[in-house]
Amino acid sequence: MGFLRFLLFPFSILYMCATSLRNFLFSIGVFKSTSYDVPSLGIGNLSMGGTGKSVAINYFITLFKNHYPVTILSRGHGRISKGFQLGNENSTAKTLGDEPLMFLKQHPEIRVGVSNNRRKGMTTLLNHDTNKADGIFLWDDCFQHRWVKPSLMILLTTYSSPYSRDFILPVGNLRELSEGAERANIIIVTKCPRNLSVKRQTEIRMRLHLKQHQHLFFSSIRYSTSIFGKNKQLPLDVLDRIPFVLVTSIADATPLTAYLRGRFEIFEHLPYKDHHIFSDADISTIQKKANGRMILTTQKDFTRLSPLIDEDLLFYLPIEMEILNEEGEQLNSLVKEGMQLA
Most CB atoms within 10 A, among 100, 134, 172, 311? Predict the structure, then answer.
């Protein structure tokens, strides 16, 4: 690994120079960020993925949807459609992307739009339905999309690979230097052990070098006690008696596999790259491996697999973000205050 990093180091220098110059041009005003007169919450990271953005977005959808019209704006990773797309009952992962489709399926009362250009996406959304222009806008994976500026920015970083210990691409996984974290108002360390000690939290806080305007929170993953199919719900404990195959197409499946291995004796894991588009050959492989056994997957992957696999065999395990130290209400209050909500 050390030798490979040595070989890639010159490319990291070039990438660092390009991203740093871009950020500098935004900082001095040569490039202009557009702000909006609507409450907007940006959620992103410094790394390539696997920090739990979709779980965090779902947390804030749940927080806001009973009080405000909620609109999600995302790039729509994994879609093959072009330009702006507005989610509807006919949307698929190919037209909307897997994560945006998951949000729409889980929360049909919200509005979901995807666009590679966030500025054009916001303009289209604001003009499309003026009644919902008074609601809440959640921007998915927007930390590096500096052409738009949210009312409040949340940065996610994982407990196992915080940005303070990472390197810039391609040596590491950072999209820009860790100094970019200064643009965040709130930083959430995700995927923490639920029993994370105060001492360890203090160590992490010191290493992240927070600025005066920043607030730090720690979160863990909470798994559902049930698994869900297209038209069926079963207790998670049923997997003690039913053999299953786990299929994942996410950036970091380690927490999920560790959790399942801690509860169930034997299962086979078929991992695919993040946002993988399942081919006919992939589906054939999955079905052969399963050989009539239950197929367990993530909620995001379920949106792509459900049209392709027997609904009696396919189930997903929902997860939620849980804020540690009983600081959930504090986080919620800070977010509402930052978005200037009553």
Answer: 100
Q: How many domains does the chain have?
A: 2
Q: Please tell me what DSSP assigns to residue 28.
A: T
> Which range marks the domain in which residue 259 is found?
225-317
**With contact defined as beta carbons under 8 Å apart, do 72 and 110 qualify?**
yes
Percent with pLDDT over 90 in the chain: 87
- Cα of 174 vs its chain's centroid, Å: 16
Which tens digits make up the pLDDT trace of 185-200? 999 999 999 999 999 9
CB-CB contact of 67 with 82 (8 Å): no
Q: Where are the beta strands (DSSP E) in the chain?
A: 40-45, 70-74, 85-86, 111-114, 136-140, 152-158, 186-190, 215-223, 226-228, 233-235, 244-248, 268-271, 294-297, 314-316, 319-323
Residues 197 and 233 both lie in one domain? no
pTM > 0.90: yes or no: yes
Q: Which two tokens stand for residue 35?
A: 């702000």
Q: Which residues pair with 70 in a beta bridge?
A: 136
Residues 110 and 237 in one domain: no
